[in-house]
C-alpha cells in the first residue's frame, strides 16, 4: 500500500508550500525528519522569539523565509540593535540576521530609535513590505522625518508600509514622501491608522500624502472630523482622496475618537453635539470617484445626516463593494414602505458594521436583511432604537449566510435579549460578541435553566413585524418560521436534571464586554450554557474602580467558564479598568485586590494560551502585574503561552515557573505611552533575561 512518503518530493514540496497556517506547519514538521526538512525548505513566514543578545540561537535553516517578524524579540520594547546586556556590535547582529535570512522582502520590527531602521534596511535593500512598531514616545530632539528617511531612500522596491502600531508625529511623514517621489508612487498599501494619535492627520497632510502616492490601493488613516479643530477633514478632503487615488480598493477614514476601544455613554441616543462637514452631494461624488472600492470604513465620530440617498449610489458606483463600516451616519435606511432604500440596496455586501446610528429602527434592520442577503458578518453598536424583534427577524432572513455577529452598547439589547435575537442562527454562528448587561439575570445565576416551551414562544415573534412589510413578505416569513420551528428541537439537548438547554454547535469565538464590579456567572443562565466547540474567549472589563465598594462576591466568575470543554485560549483585557495602583483611600480597594477579584478561579480553566492586560492607574501611567495576580496565574497548570501586556516585578514573574509546561512568556508594554524608565525594577532588561533563562532551563515533558 502506498503511503504519503511515496509521493515525489516535488509534489510534497508544493503541498507544504500551500499550507500557510503556522500551527499546521509546526505539527507537520514533527511527523518525520523528511517532513521537518520539507517544512524548513518551504516556510516563507517566520516570527522570531528569544533574546536578541543570543547570536548563537539565530536559526540558519530557514533559507526560504521572505516574511520576517522581529518585533517580539526579548527584552520586548528595548532597542534591537543595542542590547543593554552585551557589547554586541549592532552591525554584527544585523549581519547575522541577513546571513540567516537572505531572501527577506517583508520585515516587521520594533524600532525604538531611527538607528534600528537605518541598520536593518542596509542589510535588506530589496525590502518590499515593512511594518514598524513603537509604543514608546518619539524624542523631540530627532529631526522631522528621521524615522522614514533611510527607509524610503534605500528601499527602492518598497510598496507596502504599515505604521498602525508605530508612534511618530504626523508632520514626520508627508515631507519624506514628497522628497522620495519614485518610492511614494510605487506604494500600493499605506496604513496610518495609528491608535496612539491624539488628533490624527490634518486635512492638508492627507492631501499631500495622497498626492505623493497616486497608486495607492489600500489607504487607512486616522484623522479628525470635528469642525471645531484646525485641519479637520470635510468635503474638500474626501474629494481630494478620491481624485488623487482613484485606484483605491480599500479605504479607512476613522476619527481618532473612534479608535479607542471604550464603550460609549449608554444614555446617548446616537447623535453628537456637532455635525461633520460632510454633505450628501459630496458623498455621491466621493463614491463615484472610487469605482474599484471593495472595503470602505467611514467612522467619522460626528453626525452625518440624511445619508440614505448617497448610500444608494454605492450599489451602482462601487459594484465590487463587499465590506462597509459606517460610524455616526444617520438616515442610512428609512424603511418607510416595503420598497428598499439606502444601504439596503447594497446587495453585494458580505460584511456590514453600523455604529452610533441614531435613527436606525427594527424596520431598517429588516430592510437590510432583505436587501443585503449575502451578509456573513454583521455588527451593530450604539444603536438605541433597535430591539430584539428587529434583530431576530433580520437573523431569520440571513439564516443561510450570517456566521459572525457583534451586538454592543444597544440600550434595548441586554445579554439575554442579544442571545435570543441570534437564536435563528444559533446552529451556525461561529463568532459572537455581546455585552454582559444582565438586567436581573444576575439573581438567577447558574441554578435555573430555560425550558423549551419558552424558546418556542420566542421563535414565533418575528412574523408580527413582517406583517407590516406586506403580504408577500408575511407569507415568506411564515414559510421560514414553520421550517425553523420544525427543526428547532434538533439544537436542544436534554440535561440530567430534566431541563432542555440550547446548543451552540459551531460557536468557536466569544467576545464579551462587562462593566467593572459585575459578575460573569449569569452568562450560562442567560443562554450560553452549551457551547461544545467554543475554543477562544475575549473578555473586556471596563470602568472606574475608584469610589466603588468591595464586590459582594469574592470572585468575578471565571470558574463558570469551565463548563465549555474545548475552551483553551483567553484574552482577559482589564486595561480600561481604572483604579489606585498604590495606596487606596480608606474603605476602597487598590488594583491588587481588584486583580484578585478578576482572576480568582482562573486555575479551574484548562487554558493553553492567555493574554492578560492588567488594570491601570492613569495618574501614574502604571499597568503592572500584582502579587495576587501572579499567584493566581501560577495556578493555570496547563498554560503554554502567557503574554502580559504590562509590567511586572522579577520576583512576581518567578511564580510562573511553577507552571510545568509553560514555554512562552513575555511582558509587552504595547500601549501608549509605554514606560520610559528602563531602570525600574519592573522594566529592567536584566530581569526579563534572568526570568527567560530560568524558564528555558526547565525540562518540558512533551
TrEMBL record:
Pfam family of the protein (one): DUF7885
Superkingdom of the source species: Eukaryota
InterPro entries found in the cross-reference section: FBXL15_LRR, Leu-rich_rpt_Cys-con_subtyp, LRR_dom_sf
Gene3D superfamilies for this protein: 1.20.1280.50, Ribonuclease Inhibitor (3.80.10.10)
Matching SUPFAM superfamilies: RNI-like
Segments passing through the bilayer: none
Domain F-box/LRR-repeat protein 15-like leucin rich repeat, first and last residues per copy: 313-417
GO CC annotations on file: nucleus; SCF ubiquitin ligase complex
GO biological process annotation, one example: SCF-dependent proteasomal ubiquitin-dependent protein catabolic process
Xref: PANTHER family: F-BOX PROTEIN MAX2 (PTHR13318:SF148), PARTNER OF PAIRED, ISOFORM B-RELATED (PTHR13318)
Listed name of the protein: F-box/LRR-repeat protein 15-like leucin rich repeat domain-containing protein
Amino acid at each position: 500500500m502506498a503511503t504519503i512518503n511515496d509521493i515525489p518530493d516535488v509534489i510534497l514540496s508544493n503541498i507544504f508550500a500551500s499550507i500557510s497556517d503556522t500551527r499546521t506547519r509546526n505539527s507537520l514538521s514533527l511527523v518525520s525528519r523528511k517532513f521537518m526538512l520539507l517544512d524548513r525548505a518551504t516556510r516563507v513566514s517566520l516570527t522570531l522569539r528569544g533574546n536578541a543578545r543570543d547570536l548563537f540561537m539565530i536559526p540558519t535553516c530557514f533559507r526560504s523565509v521572505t516574511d520576517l517578524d522581529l518585533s517580539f524579540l526579548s527584552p520586548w520594547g528595548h532597542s534591537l540593535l543595542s542590547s543593554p546586556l552585551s557589547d554586541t556590535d549592532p552591525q554584527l547582529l544585523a549581519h547575522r540576521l541577513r546571513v540567516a535570512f537572505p531572501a527577506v522582502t517583508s520585515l516587521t520590527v520594533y524600532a525604538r530609535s531611527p538607528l534600528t531602521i537605518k541598520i536593518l534596511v542596509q542589510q535588506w535593500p530589496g525590502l518590499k513590505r515593512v511594518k514598524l512598531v513603537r509604543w514608546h514616545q518619539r524624542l523631540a530632539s530627532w529631526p522631522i522625518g528621521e524615522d522614514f528617511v533611510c527607509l524610503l531612500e534605500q528601499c527602492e522596491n518598497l510598496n507596502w508600509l504599515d505604521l498602525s502600531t508605530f508612534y511618530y508625529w504626523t508632520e514626520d511623514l508627508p515631507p519624506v514622501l514628497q522628497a522620495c517621489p519614485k518610492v511614494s508612487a510605487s506604494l500600493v498599501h499605506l496604513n496610518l491608522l495609528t491608535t496612539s494619535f491624539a488628533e490624527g492627520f490634518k486635512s492638508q497632510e492627507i492631501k499631500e500624502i495622497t498626492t505623493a502616492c497616486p497608486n495607492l490601493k489600500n489607504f487607512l488613516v486616522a484623522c479628525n472630523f470635528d469642525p471645531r479643530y484646525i485641519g479637520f477633514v470635510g468635503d474638500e478632503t474626501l474629494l481630494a482622496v478620491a481624485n488623487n487615488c482613484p485606484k483605491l480598493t480599500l479605504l479607512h477614514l476613522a476619527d481618532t475618537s473612534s479608535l479607542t476601544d471604550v464603550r460609549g455613554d449608554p444614555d446617548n441616543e446616537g447623535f453628537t453635539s456637532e455635525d461633520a462637514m460632510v454633505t450628501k452631494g459630496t458623498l455621491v461624488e466621493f463614491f463615484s470617484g472610487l469605482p474599484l472600492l471593495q472595503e470602505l470604513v467611514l467612522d467619522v465620530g460626528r453626525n452625518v445626516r440624511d445619508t440614505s440617498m448617497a448610500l444608494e449610489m454605492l450599489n451602482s458606483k462601487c459594484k465590487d463593494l463587499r465590506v462597509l463600516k459606517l460610524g455616526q451616519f444617520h438616515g442610512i435606511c428609512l424603511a418607510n414602505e416595503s420598497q428598499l432604500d439606502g444601504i439596503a440596496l447594497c446587495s453585494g455586501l458580505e460584511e456590514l458594521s453600523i455604529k452610533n446610528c441614531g435613527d436606525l429602527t427594527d424596520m431598517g434592520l429588516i430592510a437590510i436583511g432583505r436587501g443585503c442577503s449575502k451578509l456573513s458578518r454583521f455588527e451593530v453598536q450604539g444603536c438605541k432604537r433597535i430591539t430584539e424583534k428587529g434583530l431576530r427577524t433580520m437573523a431569520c432572513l440571513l439564516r443561510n449566510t450570517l456566521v459572525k455577529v457583534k451586538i454592543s452598547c444597544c440600550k434595548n439589547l441586554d445579554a439575554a435579549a442579544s442571545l435570543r435575537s441570534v437564536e435563528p442562527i444559533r446552529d451556525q454562528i461561529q463568532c459572537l460578541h455581546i455585552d454582559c448587561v444582565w438586567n436581573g439575570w444576575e439573581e438567577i445565576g447558574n441554578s435555573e435553566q430555560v425550558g423549551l416551551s419558552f424558546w418556542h414562544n420566542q421563535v414565533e415573534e418575528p412574523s408580527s413585524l413582517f406583517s407590516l412589510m406586506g403580504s408577500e413578505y408575511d407569507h415568506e416569513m411564515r414559510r421560514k418560521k414553520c421550517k425553523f420551528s420544525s427543526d428547532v428541537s434538533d439544537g436542544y439537548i436534554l440535561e440530567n436534571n430534566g431541563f432542555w438547554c440550547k446548543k451552540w454547535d459551531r460557536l468557536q469565538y466569544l467576545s464579551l464586554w462587562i462593566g467593572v464590579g459585575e459578575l460573569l456567572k449569569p452568562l450560562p443562565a442567560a443562554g450560553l450554557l452549551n457551547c461544545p466547540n467554543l475554543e477562544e474567549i475575549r473578555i473586556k472589563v471596563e470602568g472606574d474602580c475608584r469610589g466603588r465598594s468591595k464586590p459582594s462576591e469574592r470572585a468575578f466568575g471565571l470558574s463558570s467558564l469551565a463548563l465549555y470543554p474545548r475552551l483553551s485560549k483567553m484574552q482577559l483585557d482589564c486595561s480600561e479598568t481604572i483604579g489606585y495602583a498604590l495606596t487606596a483611600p480608606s474603605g476602597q480597594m487598590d488594583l491588587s485586590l481588584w486583580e484578585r477579584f478578576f482572576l480568582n478561579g482562573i486555575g479551574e480553566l484548562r487554558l493553553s494560551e492567555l493574554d492578560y492586560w492588567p488594570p491601570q492607574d492613569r495618574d501614574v501611567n502604571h499597568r503592572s502585574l500584582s502579587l495576587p495576580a501572579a499567584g493566581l496565574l501560577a495556578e493555570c497548570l496547563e498554560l503554554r503561552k502567557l503574554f502580559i501586556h504590562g509590567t511586572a516585578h522579577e520576583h512576581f514573574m518567578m511564580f510562573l515557573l511553577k507552571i510545568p509546561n509553560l514555554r512562552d512568556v513575555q511582558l509587552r508594554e504595547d500601549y501608549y505611552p509605554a514606560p520610559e524608565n528602563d531602570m525600574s525594577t519592573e522594566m529592567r532588561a536584566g530581569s526579563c533575561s534572568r526570568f527567560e533563562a530560568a524558564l528555558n532551563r526547565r525540562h518540558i515533558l512533551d
